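Translate structure to sequence.
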């Protein structure tokens, strides 16, 4: 598969000879820029952002810049909030905003583009999998990570490198890719994350719960209308990846084919479908022809009940979801209540197609999962609720597991989708408030594991207190830093019936993070 990815990459490079290329832009890591993504979400819920889609994360720096310009251009909707958001985002993406406004394409090299340092103090447990932190597993005691990124933009291509050093003497390439832009399409080849969807506490299929992985990705950079009379159907956006999993699994170097198509029939409504196909790997057939990939896409031969091994050639792990998001930016018209906007979203996911098919020839999933969420904001204060369940399974099936893939839908032991895993339920509540000194948030997450398949359930009560602040260090000229953000958090996780036993555990986690943008 790696050879096939390289071949695709070379062919696309060659295609530049006959087609006009545009200047590319690096992606903005979700974990390192949590506050910046939060501000964009607020702005969209209020209506300061109308065109940018936030469900195809990570955004590129150019997409961030265009969203910031939108905030400025729509400032009449809420002048004070627009100014606040713009003043906080613009210093971080100043060069990208200016490049978009001036339509300038400059070559450059940044030996040090970004530095992210975080340290964690953990007690009460060992090997704690920190959710949505790029596959970071913490040991009992002190844990630290240091990420330093570099960029080179040259001759219409951008190369991004981000080595990472961990306290346990692990030095590896966290992110590293080459990206380019062609006729409104963004291409990326290398190691990066994706997060598809609008859920606050983890989507079903793709999140940054796992470390960056090797992929080839192509997506259009913004919503587009179809030509001719189809332009009246609304706007569309898509993304497609082919990715490779790790060697250290039963099916070494298995692959993931991910695809997402979003439709915006009108301004406030987004409807999207997402697919994930886990295929190939050690002991499984290799697929090369268009017919093979068509069979993968149509999923006509999933879970075939046949003793003949040939009948299981296309028996792979298929997951799909549809999500509907409706933005409530019209709330600012009602003066009797404090909220200026929000969003409501629902996600339905199906795990594999079951033979025989259901009524009318429709395939039935072996398992289903759901997310229901509501977000409200005053512009300074956010209230969020999210319910997630992955308990609906048939014939012994469980979300993120598969009979052909013993390691399930994972990468280096972390679930690629929602951190709660299969056969689980989650109730998530969060309040976030902007004070003059910092943004502070408090959340409570109740998670129950083994809901249907265990005689005793593991229950987590997770309390989290977090704060972040943009620091002004412009006067320290020797640092030459124009954007520095400080993150702090305290998490208390009370686990009842840990690992489905009679034991209880109390987990305490304190962390400090510093993001420096040069």
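Result:
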């Amino acid at each position: 598969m790696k050879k096939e990815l390289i071949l695709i990459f070379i062919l696309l490079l060659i295609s530049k000879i006959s087609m006009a290329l545009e200047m590319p832009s690096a992606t903005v890591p979700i974990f390192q820029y949590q506050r910046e993504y939060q501000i964009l979400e607020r702005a969209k819920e209020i209506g300061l952002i109308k065109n940018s889609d936030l469900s195809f994360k990570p955004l590129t720096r150019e997409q961030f810049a265009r969203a910031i310009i939108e905030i400025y251009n729509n400032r009449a909707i809420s002048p004070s909030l627009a100014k606040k958001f713009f003043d906080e985002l613009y210093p971080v993406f100043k060069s990208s905003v200016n490049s978009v406004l001036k339509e300038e394409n400059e070559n450059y090299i940044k030996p040090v583009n970004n530095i992210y340092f975080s340290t964690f103090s953990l007690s009460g447990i060992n090997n704690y999998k920190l959710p949505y932190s790029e596959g970071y597993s913490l040991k009992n005691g002190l844990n630290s990570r240091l990420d330093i990124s570099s960029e080179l933009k040259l001759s219409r291509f951008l190369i991004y490198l981000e080595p990472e050093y961990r306290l346990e003497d692990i030095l590896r390439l966290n992110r590293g890719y080459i990206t380019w832009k062609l006729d409104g399409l963004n291409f990326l080849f290398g190691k990066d994350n994706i997060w598809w969807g609008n859920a606050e506490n983890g989507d079903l299929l793709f999140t940054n719960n796992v470390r960056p992985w090797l992929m080839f990705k192509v997506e259009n950079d913004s919503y587009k209308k179809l030509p001719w009379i189809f332009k009246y159907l609304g706007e569309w956006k898509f993304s497609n990846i082919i990715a490779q999993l790790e060697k250290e699994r039963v099916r070494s170097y298995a692959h993931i084919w991910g695809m997402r198509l979003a439709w915006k029939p009108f301004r406030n409504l987004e409807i999207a479908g997402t697919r994930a196909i886990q295929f190939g790997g050690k002991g499984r057939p290799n697929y090369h022809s268009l017919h093979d990939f068509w069979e993968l896409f149509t999923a006509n031969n999933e879970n075939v009940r046949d003793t003949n091994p040939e009948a299981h050639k296309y028996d792979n792990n298929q997951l799909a979801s549809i999500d509907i998001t409706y933005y409530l930016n019209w709330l600012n018209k009602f003066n009797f209540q404090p909220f200026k906007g929000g969003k409501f979203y629902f996600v339905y996911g199906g795990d594999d197609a079951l033979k025989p098919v259901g009524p009318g020839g429709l395939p039935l999933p072996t398992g289903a999962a759901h997310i229901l969420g509501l977000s409200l904001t005053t512009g300074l204060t956010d209230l969020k609720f999210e319910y997630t369940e992955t308990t609906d399974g048939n014939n012994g099936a469980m979300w993120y597991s598969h009979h052909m893939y013993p390691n399930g839908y994972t990468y280096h032991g972390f679930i690629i989708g929602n951190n709660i895993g299969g056969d689980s339920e989650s109730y998530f509540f969060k309040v976030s408030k902007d004070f003059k000194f910092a943004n502070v948030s408090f959340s409570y997450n109740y998670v129950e594991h083994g809901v249907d398949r265990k005689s005793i359930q593991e229950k987590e009560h997770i309390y989290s207190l977090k704060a972040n602040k943009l620091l002004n260090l412009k006067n320290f000229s020797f640092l030459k830093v124009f954007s520095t953000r400080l993150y702090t958090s305290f998490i208390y996780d009370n686990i009842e019936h840990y690992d489905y036993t009679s034991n209880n555990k109390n987990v305490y986690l304190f962390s400090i993070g510093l993001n420096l943008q040069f």
